[in-house]
Specification:
The complex is a heterodimer of chains A (114) and B (113).
Chain A (H helix, E strand, L loop, with lengths): L2 E4 L4 E4 L4 E3 L1 E4 L5 E7 L5 E7 L5 E4 L2 E4 L9 E3 L8 E8 L9 E2 L3 E6 L1
Parallel strand pairs in A: 2-12
Antiparallel strand pairs in A: 1-4, 3-9, 5-6, 5-10, 7-8, 8-9, 10-11, 10-12
Chain B lengths: L4 E3 L2 E4 L5 E6 L6 E8 L3 E9 L2 E4 L8 E7 L2 E6 L8 E8 L7 E2 L3 E5 L1
Classes of the chains: A mainly beta (114), B mainly beta (113).
């Protein structure tokens, strides 16, 4: 079945550091890939997505590229801020779409120190 | 526009009691998902509905859990009887179609003593 593996957290960085959160997936076909962010006490919000190989999703300075050859969708940001502190979830949806739910990774807790 | 609305935000109950969690979808959305979040297991999909019809409930942990969607805009998740291991944050989410963005509510934090 489908699965998503993320790097374990917490990840602690200083403000303005470069961020990478690794995500790899297992799925048949060509799923759509997503990054969601969860701020304390809130639900998940879509951060970015990519729907086909080599697509790059970007939002709020974050980027991730759909790499089919390595089955990866790593999240990057060039200069993090304290306000980026949150839990980040990588997710995929079934290839071809369909009314199914997303499969989520376990989440990576990011802590940015001033 | 109002987002997905969940109630209650927090529930503390004793083992054996019935718990009902509620969710109001975003207007115009036709798919509804219930997720459970715990530290140990992360986010787990419990059940999802499409156009009020349950499509896949294979994630529902056991018969103590049931979910309904009596109309296009509202859903309930019921646990009867509740157990301490049911303690978690329960999220519902909705979307407009098979490839639309999932919009999450703020969650219902359940503590079963």
């Amino acid at each position: 079945g489908n699965s998503v593996t993320q790097m374990e957290g917490p990840v602690t960085l200083s403000e303005e550091a470069f961020l990478t959160i690794n995500c790899t997936y297992t799925a048949t076909g060509y799923p759509s890939l997503f990054w969601y962010v969860q701020y304390p006490g809130e639900g998940l919000q879509l951060l970015l997505k990519a729907t086909k190989a080599d697509d790059k999703g970007s939002n709020k300075g974050f980027e991730a590229t759909y790499r089919k050859e390595t089955t990866s969708f790593h999240l990057e940001k060039g200069s993090v801020q304290v306000s980026d502190s949150a839990v980040y979830f990588c997710a995929l949806s079934k290839a071809g779409g369909g009314a199914d739910g997303l499969t989520f990774g376990k989440g990576t807790h990011l802590i940015i120190q001033p | 526009d109002a987002g997905v609305i969940q109630s209650p935000r927090h529930e503390v109950t004793e083992m054996g009691q019935e718990v009902t969690l509620r969710c109001k979808l975003i207007s115009g959305h036709n798919s509804l998902f219930w997720y459970r979040q715990t530290m140990m297991r992360g986010l787990e999909l419990l059940i999802y509905f499409n156009n009020n019809v349950p499509i896949d409930d294979s994630g529902m942990p056991e018969d103590r859990f049931s979910a309904k969607m009596p109309n296009a805009s509202f859903s309930t998740l019921k646990i009867q009887p509740s157990e301490p291991r049911d303690s978690a944050v329960y999220f519902c989410a909705s979307r407009t179609g098979p490839s639309g963005e999932l919009f999450f509510g703020e969650g219902s934090r359940l503590t079963v003593l």
